[in-house]
Amino acid sequence: MLRLATAGSVDDGKSTLIGRLLYDTKSVLADQLSAVERATAARGGHATAVDLALLTDGLRAEREQGITIDVAYRYFSTARRAFVLADTPGHVQYTRNMVTGASTAELAIVLVDARKGVLEQTRRHAALTALLGVPHVVLAVNKMDLVGFDEATFAAIAREFTDYARVLGLPAVHAVPLSALDGDNVVLRSGRTPWYDGPTLLDLLERVPVGRDAGAEPLRLPVQYVIRPRTPEHPDYRGYAGKLASGVVRVGDELRVLPSGRTSRVVGIDTFDGPLQAAEAPRSVTVRLADDLDVARGDVLAPAGEDVRTGQDLVGTVCWLTERRSVAGARVLVRTGTRTVRALLREVDARLDVDTLTVERWDPVDTVRTIDATDTSSDAAPRSLGLNAIGRVRVRLAEPVVLDDYATHRRTGGFLLVDPTDGGTLAAGMVGPTLLDRLVPVRSDERDDDWLAGAGI
Fold first, then answer.
1. By its UniProt entry, which InterPro entries does this protein fall under (predicted)?
2. First vs last Cα of the chain: how many Å apart?
3. I want to staple 102 with a disulfide (CB 3.0 to 4.6 A). Which of 5, 38, 142, 159 is the partner?
């Protein structure tokens, strides 16, 4: 199964492209197609025409405005592979939705309108793709029919985007010229691009390597639940249930319980289908250990011989997801894996300018100082993060947790900052070095102009 996400500027044709994929792969039910045909006619279209964007733009506001607002997930399959596709918004206002939609993707399709070329929002979404560590990128140059399928136009756009991707550290980019409206090079090869000899978009999606070599990754099993039935059949049963985030667990393995550091040996692996001698990610299992250790929800089982970093000082990059600005010294909850810990947001010391690919760095601030989190005026403290902003935070945790770097442990290196008063999500983050640490740092000049506009987000 391949998880993929679309990204790009407004009106580049993301929803239409997804609708075309669903339509041409025969993944649309007859009643769904009839409903879309009626909706197309109600909007003034031809009775026999189909506005394929309506297959994914399901919210009423999306259909009225003709834009994608929330992340829409669609599922389809071919003879070769199953797909989970996230249609993410292109508008700058919904950058946070793109972050959540692409956080689990293994491939990103970045769309560009052939008439407009690479735009600011295209660069922004490419930077977010690099920040989230998406391993595969496809550049879809859409609306080629509106430029007469000109080879020079396609080559110039592909070259500009590839150069930008190289600076970001993105993997090799494969560019495809297509028309989502007419279906050129989406599922079937187009006769209107005789100069293009590469694969169609669907061919790329079916052939790109997916999944991970579970045996090559270190074991991580976040404990979700401790099973103690205490029934006559199982009076002394004690199992630790969870979904394997990475790696392989085998009967006889020596494991360490983190963050306590106690060790024991695996004596049994139970599943819904029965006992196993070995299990690999992403399977859900219940592990039995030889010793009765103090293991609770939120603990992580890892190989005993591996040096896994734990601690109470978390440094990570976050995308701020709420209109309330970050407050230095605020009390928050940190959710990492299956663990939730009380914490203090000590400081925000950097912010990413996506337009210039520079990082604005600030000197440490007094975390005791309070900042009005509801103030949205331009003269508020510039060392805070607002909606959609990306920056680096330092958080002090009330108790130690596993601190895997996101760059090497994508499944366990992420975290959330949560408001303890109402449970709302403040930010989604990544532990350890990220794109921010590779870009050019600049010192803040503490000017009084609008700092959110200066963030370029």
1. CysN_GTP-bd, CysN_II, CysN_NoDQ_III, G_TR_CS, GTP-eEF1A_C, P-loop_NTPase, SO4_adenylTrfase_lsu, T_Tr_GTP-bd_dom
2. 32
3. 5
Strands 107-113 and 136-142: parallel
Structural domains of the chain sorted by starting position, each given as residue range(s) with its CATH number in brackets = 2-207 (3.40.50.300), 221-303 (2.40.30.10), 310-439 (2.40.30.10)
What angle, rounded to 10 degrees, do the helices at 120-131 and 151-168 form?
Answer: 40
Sequence-ordered alpha helix ranges (H) in 368-450: none
Q: What is the dihedral of CA 128, 134, 135, 136, to 10 degrees?
A: -80
Taking the C-alpha atoms of residue 24 and residue 183, their distance in angstroms, rounded to an integer, is 8
Q: Can you tell me whether residue 220 is helix, strand or coil?
A: strand
Q: What local confidence, expressed as pLDDT, does residue 194 receive?
A: 95
DSSP state of 322: S
Residue linked to tokens 């090497």:
408
Q: What is the pLDDT of residue 215?
A: 66
Question: What torsion, rounded to 10 degrees, do the Cα atoms 394, 395, 396, 400 define?
Answer: -110
Determine the residue type at 7.
Answer: A
